[in-house]
Amino acid sequence: MSVDPMAYETQFFGFTPQTCMLRVYIAFQDYLFEMMLVVEGVMLKKLDGIPGCKISPSQIRKCTEKFLLFMKEHFDKLFAKMEEVLLQLVLNIPKNVLLPEDRVHEQYPYSKEEFQALQDELQQLQQQCRAEAAAEQALRAELEEQKAVKAELEKILQCFDGLENICREHGAGNFKESFALLTQSSKKLQNVLKDVEEKSKKMKQHDQLM
Questions:
Q1: Exposed, middle or buried by CB within 10 Å (0-12, 13-18, 19+), for 97?
Q2: Is 25 a residue whose pLDDT tops 90?
Q3: Residue 125: its pLDDT value, please?
Q4: What are phi and psi of 16, to 5 degrees?
Q5: What is the pLDDT of residue 77?
Q6: Average pLDDT, the chain
Q7: What is the per-residue burial (b if ≥16 Cβ within 10 Å, else e) of 51-72?
């Protein structure tokens, strides 16, 4: 069998020429075996009709096998020549023939260097697309976070508006001024609380010494 991959022929036919030849070889070989069995069966029937015949079926089988081996050797030689002719003249596409789907390569030829440059450029574009997709995903995540923060701020503003309305209803005046006074009062209370805690610690230490 030929070792040439014959890729262009495979593209055109849809099968490898070597596979085609192998199937033809198997079909011929199977037919040869079947033919020898038929011949052997005919010989056995003929010998049964001859009185006093001393040829046994096992002897006929040996002769059939020898003849089959002889035929197979000659068949292999003939098939090798037939395969060579078919692969060269029938299942072969000449080098100057271009398939219709490959004519675009003739119109726009590219060298290996140009093709490699295109491959490198394509790879760079793919990397840029992946980077832009990752950046877009990060921006979307940041936008969602900003939306959540905005919603919380709106809730706080609504809360302040509600407190300001309550202050107005109870005659507390401006909410900002009231809030400033509350802040100062809170700081004073925190200072007083610290003083009380320090005095309490000192008293405990004095009690322990006594």
A1: exposed
A2: yes
A3: 93
A4: -80, 135
A5: 92
A6: 79
A7: eeeeeeeeebeeebeeebeeee
Domain boundaries, the chain: 7-107, 172-209
- Determine how many CB atoms are found less than 10 A away from the CB of residue 187: 10
The packing angle between helices 112-169 and 175-209, to 10°, is 90
Rounded CA-CA distance 92/10 in Å is 10
Cα–Cα distance for residue pair 115/112, rounded to 1 Å: 5
Strands (E), the chain: none
| pTM for the whole structure | 0.45
- The predicted-structure confidence for 118-142, as pLDDT tens digits, reads as follows 889 999 999 999 999 999 998 888 8
Residue 186 or residue 20, greater confidence: 20
The pLDDT of residue 174 is 57
Q: What is the SS3 string spanning 99-141?
A: CHHHHHHHHCCCCHHHHHHHHHHHHHHHHHHHHHHHHHHHHHH
Environment class of residue 82 by beta-carbon count within 10 Å: exposed (0-12), middle (13-18) or buried (19+)? middle
